[in-house]
C-alpha cells in the first residue's frame, strides 16, 4: 500500500531516515536500557582466573580486614560519660585524666578506620584499572568474564554502605575526636606533654576530622577516589568508568527481579548483599557521572531499581531507600522526574 502510493525509493528513504534519526536520538539520550545485561554474576562462589589473579590478590589483602573494621566500629561505645564529667568539673584533675585516658585509645581506632579508607581507595583504583581496561570491548563483558573482580568491587560497595550506616548512628565518634583535639590544643598551650600526640599530628588530625565530618565518609572516599581515577586517566573516556557502575547496577537489578537467577542464591543474605550493592553503585554513579543517576538519559533504570527495592519486605529495605533519599547528589535536581521523586517519598 505504501509502496503503491509513494514508490519504493521514497519508502526506503523514510525507513533510512527513521533509523538514522533513531540512532542519533539514542546517542543524544545516551541510554540503551532495552539492552540490559542478562547474566548471572556469582557473588557467592566466583573464583579468580589466572588473568585476574594479580589484581584479585592485591584487593583481597584489603578486603580481609574489612569485616574486623566493621566489628570494631559496631562495638565502638565512645567516651561520652567521661567527657561529660570532665567538662562539668573543669578543675578536677583526676576527671580530666580519666577522660583523656578513655579518649586516646578511641582516637587510635578512629585513625585506624581513616587509614583503612585510604587502603580501600587504592583497592578501588586497582579494580577500576582492570574493569575499564581494553581486555574486553565493554563493561558487560568485563563483569561477566571477570566475575571475581566484579565480586570484590561489590564487596567494597557493600562494606562502604555498612560502614556509613554504623557511623551515621554513632554521634560519639565526632564528639570523641572533637574533645581529643580541644584537649590536645590546650595541653600544647600549657606545654603539657601529651600521650597520644605522636600518634596523630596536626595535619593528620585535620584530615581525620574532615573524614568524619562527612555524613557518609566511606562513600565520599569512593566517589572522590573514582573521580580521581578518571582525572588521572585522561586517555580513558569517563564513560568507561561510569558504564562499569551503571552495568553493575543493571546486573544486580536483573538478578533480583529474575526468578531463575534469584533462585540460584543459596541464602537471603545474598539477596540483601545484592540489594545493598545495587544501591551503593547507584549512589556512586550519581556522584561521579556529570548529570547523575536520576535524569531521563541515565543508563541506570532508576524506576526499575526502586521497584525492585519496593518489592522486598519493607523492614529489610527502608535503610536502603533512605540512602537513596538522603545520600545521593542529584535526586532533588529539577531534571529528576516527578515519578522517581514520588516513588522515593
From TrEMBL:
It is found in: Membrane. Keywords: Lipoprotein, Membrane. It comes from the Eukaryota. Transmembrane segments: none annotated. The keyword Hydrolase does not apply. The keyword Transmembrane helix does not apply. InterPro entries: CYRI, CYRIA/CYRIB_Rac1-bd. One of its GO terms (molecular function) is small GTPase binding. Residues 38-341 form the CYRIA/CYRIB Rac1 binding domain. GO terms for biological process: regulation of actin filament polymerization. Belongs to the CYRI family. GO terms for cellular component: membrane. PANTHER family: GH09096P. It is a lipid-anchor. Its main location: membrane. This is Family with sequence similarity 49 member Bb. It comes from Cyprinus carpio carpio.
